[in-house]
Please model this.
Amino acid sequence: GAGVSQSPSNKVTEKGKDVELRCDPISGHTALYWYRQSLGQGLEFLIYFQGNSAPDKSGLPSDRFSAERTGGSVSTLTIQRTQQEDSAVYLCASSLNQYQPQHFGDGTRLSIL
Amino acid sequence: AQTVTQSQPEMSVQEAETVTLSCTYDTSENNYYLFWYKQPPSRQMILVIRQEAYKQQNATENRFSVNFQKAAKSFSLKISDSQLGDTAMYFCAYQETSGSRLTFGEGTQLTVNP
Model:
């Protein structure tokens, strides 16, 4: 079946704008994760969903970052009032449940001008 | 907090030879999972191999095998018969058995030369 799908693949926006990143997990996967990959910080965990609830959102770097998941499927990561330090690749992963290996999408490369 | 360390930022190997990538980690847990992921220039993180800490037997997947030393908190990846397509960034990762987040190392850029 299809893998984890992320859109857009690339996003360029101006500082101060809001952006929404989308993740379509593998069908039937109940667990969904967001990570951020940047040159200076490596791979950082952002948030974890089990179904529609987020038992661990401790990795969100500021209150400008939020995420939701609806219908136990699609998730959106929203960044408000973007800053240049938000420039990074945002990776989404899903797994059958929290005990199974995570499968990643191709990521969204976000560039803040 | 758990930490994962990969001390080799870059490595290279000749095609058909064997290479070993190193990883150490720190945890106070007795049971956990360890992973190696591969990230080619396409950006997608691809699962290479998974080890469950309570299993003493080292995991293998075709040309990929691990040397898991629990007491030393060491988890190295051996790639046999290296192929050009193995060129990628390799990340070691740790996960508690309760699930949730992966904690990644800094990565090792592996180049396979023809």
About this structure: Chain A has no helices and eleven strands.
